[in-house]
Design goal:
The complex is a heterodimer of chains A (261) and B (311).
Chain A lengths: L17 H21 L1 H20 L2 H5 L9 H30 L2 H6 L4 H30 L8 H23 L4 H17 L9 H8 L2 H13 L5 H21 L4
Helix pairs in contact in A: 1-6, 2-4, 2-6, 4-6, 4-7, 4-8, 4-10, 7-10, 7-11, 9-10, 10-11
Chain B lengths: L3 E12 L2 E12 L3 E5 L6 H8 L7 E6 L8 H7 E4 L11 H9 L9 H4 L17 H13 L5 E5 L7 H16 L3 E6 L2 H7 L2 E6 L2 E6 L1 H7 L4 E6 L9 H11 L4 E4 L2 E5 L4 H13 L6 E6 L2 H9 L5
Classes of the chains: A mainly alpha (261), B alpha/beta (311).
């Protein structure tokens, strides 16, 4: 260690070109996507569990026994939208909440906030990473569904709008949790909420009666309803409005209470 | 007149009713090292967070090369490199991947080799951050602060937890940076580090600056300045009768005290008084092992200013 010369002051003037901004956000999205794909627990949550559920619900008579299949529908008409909704819950909510909470604990958020990326770029980068992972999840889910006999009939625009609003609502709430609770508390709560959303929250199985009314006002139930509608080739406008409201509430709350350190 | 790399005036910041930063002025000149000294909780890290625009000041102004780092963060972030106290590195990633990613956030990043080799990162470049020692993480964090070719670098306790060899490397890097025209703002509670590296020092306590100047000025500004230290291997315990007798006889000559095997007299003593102190010791039947005049250390200065030790 004789040559330790680290020299040369940066002489260039700082640049605020929009192209540079987009490049930084893209770099952050790429880095975070790679982090998810590298992490075993994140992969389990994002790919193995939702896709395993798709295969399980489609190849076993469970849905028939529960009487969950609507008239004229097949198992995939419940299993596929449930899987897509669960993909969003894994990636936009639980996965991001846990990753962000630990990044916050280790000062990674504070450090990135000091770079030209800034806090806005950091949030946009996370959004980009979620979109990147969701595209991979959807491709695999539709691929497996096709193998299992999926015949199409979805409304693509409705699916895209549902995905955008569902992602926005879940990501805002996930970041709110990560930015306010301790990392361990976020780890526990984000996993618990995932199980509740999947099990009883109307995300995978449509909820009925009074319970259906209640969960229809929650992000999980609204996302499940909107997903099932779009896969059936229709729009559930009420559910989409519920998701929009949760997105706005979550984003405003996160803006107000999120702490970077 | 040379432009300031960092100019802070009247900076204030509170957490609720607790004034963490309570009216701080700072100047970091281009190409110099500014040492910010103070005990834990003095407000050093909050001052850095405010200086780099991570927090919005309650009052006062901050300028990095003439730009407000809170309002014009995208610009100042390209001029300022920051090494935070807890490293700020993602645990599951590997050093090279992190540095490569950070490089992509700057318009004109330094080539990785310029940092990886001198900082000795190569040897653990392919281990995940989680599995690195504290000192190894510190070196990666330092590289992260320098990757964007900053013109001013904020280093928050950069050598905390480092072994002496790694500390030496960090010190050399800091010296090289300043020599090449980069300003360095260094917080530390290691006085030797501040004395060795910094041209200017500010001492912060409870959110205020209680002293500032070059290291030599700070020592000189202290009331006592220098002190006489006489080593007496068989000095009596000050709580015994013999000890009290000795102390009384010594203080009749000069403000002196018995500290273990040392007899310490503060102030610039003339030869006559030094001789008189030696006579007192000899008449008490004690042996003198060593006599020396010592400069006060910054630790002494800090103790004198605050009445508390620096840790």
């Amino acid at each position: 260690m004789t040559e330790t010369t680290v020299s040369g002051a940066g002489a260039s003037q700082p640049s605020t070109a929009p192209g540079m901004r987009a490049r930084r956000v893209f770099a952050q999205a790429k880095f975070e996507t790679a982090a998810v794909l590298r992490n075993g627990e994140q992969l389990l949550l994002a790919l193995i569990l939702p896709l395993g559920l798709l295969v399980f619900l489609t190849t076993t008579p469970l849905l028939d026994a529960l009487g969950a299949i609507p008239a004229g529908g097949d198992r995939l008409s419940i299993a596929l939208p449930g899987t897509l909704g669960l993909c969003l819950a894994s990636t936009a909510f639980t996965g991001q909440a846990i990753a962000t909470a630990f990044d916050r604990r280790y000062g990674v958020l504070a450090q990135l906030a000091t770079t030209p990326l800034g806090t806005t770029g950091l949030i946009l980068g996370k959004l980009g990473a979620v979109i990147g992972v969701v595209v991979i999840q959807y491709a695999l889910a539709f691929g497996i569904a096709a193998v299992l006999g999926y015949r199409g009939g979805l409304d693509v625009l409705a699916l895209i709008i549902t995905t955008i609003l569902g992602t926005a609502a879940l990501l805002a709430l996930g970041l709110l949790m990560a930015g306010t609770l301790r990392a361990e508390a976020t780890l526990g709560a984000a996993n618990l909420v995932w199980v509740l959303m999947a099990g009883a929250g109307g995300l995978v199985l449509p909820a009925t009666g009074e319970w259906g009314t209640i969960v229809g006002c929650l992000p999980s139930g609204a996302l499940g309803d909107a997903m099932r509608a779009s896969l059936a080739g229709t729009w559930d406008v009420t559910a989409l409005i519920v998701l929009l409201v949760w997105s706005l509430v979550g984003a405003l709350a996160a803006r107000r209470w999120f702490r970077f350190e | 007149m040379a432009q300031s790399a960092l100019l802070i005036r009247g900076l204030r910041y509170s957490y609720g009713a607790h004034h963490v930063v309570d009216g701080i002025d700072l100047d970091a000149r281009v190409g110099t090292v500014l040492g910010v000294l103070g005990p834990n909780g003095a407000g050093k890290s909050t001052t850095i967070a405010l200086a780099v625009g991570s927090k919005r000041p309650d009052a006062g102004t901050v300028e990095i090369f003439g730009r407000d780092p809170y309002r014009r963060h995208e610009e100042t972030a390209q001029l300022a490199g920051v090494m935070l106290q807890d490293g700020g590195l993602p645990m599951s990633a590997k050093p090279l991947a992190v540095l490569r990613h950070l490089a992509a956030l700057y318009p004109d990043p330094r080539p990785l080799d310029e940092l990886v080799e001198p900082l000795g990162i190569r040897e653990f470049a392919n281990r995940s951050i989680r599995r690195l020692s504290g000192g190894q993480r510190q070196r990666v964090a330092l590289a992260a602060a320098l990757i964007g070719r900053p013109r001013i670098v904020f280093l928050d306790e950069p050598s905390a937890g480092l072994d002496p060899q790694a500390r030496e490397v960090v010190h050399e890097v800091i010296g090289d940076l300043a020599a090449s025209g980069v300003s360095v703002v260094l917080t530390t509670h290691d006085l030797a580090e501040a004395e060795k590296l910094a041209e200017d020092i500010v001492v912060v306590d409870r959110g205020r600056i209680i002293a500032r100047g070059a290291p030599a000025e700070l020592r000189g500004a202290s009331a006592a300045g220098r002190r006489l230290v006489i080593t007496v291997p068989d000095a009596p315990d000050p709580s015994t009768d013999a000890g009290r007798e000795l102390t009384t006889a010594l203080t009749a000559v000069a403000p002196a005290s018995v500290q273990g095997t040392l007899i310490v007299a503060a102030g610039n003593l003339d030869s006559a008084r030094i001789a008189a102190l030696c006579t007192v010791i000899a008449e008490a039947g004690l042996t003198i092992g060593d006599i020396s005049m010592q400069s006060q250390s910054l630790a002494d200065v800090f103790f004198e200013l605050t009445g508390r030790p620096l840790r």
